[in-house]
Design a protein that fits this description.
Helix content: 40-55%
Number of domains: 1
Structural class: alpha/beta
InterPro entries: AB_hydrolase_1, AB_hydrolase_fold, Hydrolase_4, MAG_DAG_Lipase
Number of strands: 8
Strand content: 5-15%
CATH superfamily: Alpha/Beta hydrolase fold, catalytic domain
Keywords: Membrane, Transmembrane, Transmembrane helix
Protein name: Serine aminopeptidase S33 domain-containing protein
Number of helices: 11
CATH class: Alpha Beta
Order of helices and strands: HHEEEHEHEHEHHHHEHEH
Distance between the termini: 69 Å
Shape: globular
Largest sheet: 8 strands, mixed
Pfam family, one: Hydrolase_4
Radius of gyration: 20 Å
CATH architecture: 3-Layer(aba) Sandwich
């Protein structure tokens, strides 16, 4: 009996691996036709193994100057009038979390904006420029890298529990909000892509704690374009319990799908601490679970909210942003859809679109501070 069970388990596992292999092979062949795909190794060279935070921190220090010298509309913003600092703090789980701040150095801040970055990203690349822009508008801005992302500790790109990631965000930002200089100021969350899902989960856990949120292409549901077929998803869920850290998940290069402007797409290679490998099994399962929960609880969202989404986004589904806008219980809500824009509306579109997105964000914040 035990031998038969072992044989059955091995057969199912082998079949699952075979399906994954064939799917990845078919997807890779299709992707190879995209001649404008990001080719990181041809731009910044081989960065080596970045699984551990100390290697990522070393690589960041080597490329930091090159990043800030990129010809990108966000990165042209100087630090004039802004005090920028960064620090590490070990949280209650024993994980060292990286945080960076941008504070206006003239007068008092009129509100605080807390950034929740996207999947595999960091608060130190394109969001660096965005944060400088907000700081010059009079806002104190804080960004953090989640465990396993950017400069924070943890296995690169590994999210074993989405709820614990959300709790890390609540813990870190609650400590900052408790500082005497910020405790009476309005506080807003800014969530980009997966960071939108993080922000929404924070809100569902703390319904009355925040003054509102700005959600850019929030990951309320993963688009069919980047999801594997349902049979592959079922196999991935099973394998995630056996090989949670494995990079088995088939998929496209997200920059190819997210950045409409080809020049800006190629600049993504300089996001050297960003996670660009195939998603780890447990991470993929956790993201699917988070979006499933959020999409089922849209009516519980009650905070003031600005939703911004590219109408041609194939990474996160703009129809779910529309559903969020329509089904949420908030009395203060606004949605902006940008015609022909892709997923990365803040950093991957032509400059005129990025400027419009920035203007919409500034206007919304100004009316609430």
């Amino acid at each position: 009996m035990a031998d038969n069970l072992l044989i059955l388990t091995f057969t199912v596992f082998s079949a699952g691996i075979s399906v994954l292999y064939l799917y990845r092979k078919r997807r890779s062949k299709k992707d190879s036709l995209n001649v404008e795909s990001v080719r990181q190794e041809n731009i910044v060279g081989d960065l080596g193994n970045l699984d551990h935070e100390y290697d990522r921190r070393k690589v960041r220090s080597l490329f930091q100057e090159a990043q800030l010298n990129l010809d990108h509309i966000l990165l042209r913003e100087s630090l004039d009038g802004v005090d920028a600092e960064e620090f590490y703090r070990t949280n209650h789980r024993g994980i060292e979390i990286f945080t960076r701040s941008w504070i206006p150095n003239k007068g008092s801040a009129k509100a605080v904006v807390f950034i929740c970055h996207g999947y595999g990203d960091t608060c130190t690349f394109f969001l660096e420029g965005f944060s400088r822009i907000l700081a010059k508008e009079g806002y104190a801005v804080f960004g953090m890298d989640y465990a396993g992302c950017g400069l924070s500790a943890g296995l690169h790109g590994f999210i074993p529990d989405f709820d614990k990631l959300v709790e890390d965000v609540i813990e870190n930002y609650s400590i900052i909000r408790g500082r005497p200089e910020f405790e009476k100021l309005p506080c807003f969350l800014f969530g980009q892509s997966m960071g939108g899902a993080v922000a929404l989960k924070v809100h569902l856990k703390q319904p009355a704690a925040w003054n509102g949120a700005i959600l850019l292409a929030p990951m309320c549901k993963v688009s069919e374009e980047v999801q594997p077929p349902w049979i592959v998803i079922k196999i991935l869920i099973g394998l995630s319990y056996i090989f949670p850290r494995a990079k088995f998940v088939p998929g496209k290069n997200l920059a190819d799908l997210a950045f409409r402007d080809v020049k800006k797409r190629m600049q993504c290679a300089y996001n050297v601490v960003g996670y660009k490998d195939p998603p780890r099994l447990r991470t993929a399962v956790e993201l699917l679970g988070a979006t499933k929960e959020i999409s089922s609880r849209l009516n519980e969202v009650s905070w003031p909210m600005l939703i911004l989404h590219g109408a041609s986004d194939v990474v996160t589904d703009p129809s779910v942003s529309k559903a969020l806008y329509e089904q949420c219980s908030s009395n203060d809500k606004k949605i902006c859809l940008y015609d022909q824009a892709w997923h990365s509306i803040l950093d991957g579109e032509p400059d005129d679109v990025i400027l419009q997105v920035l203007s919409d964000i500034k206007s919304w914040l100004l009316l609430r501070t």
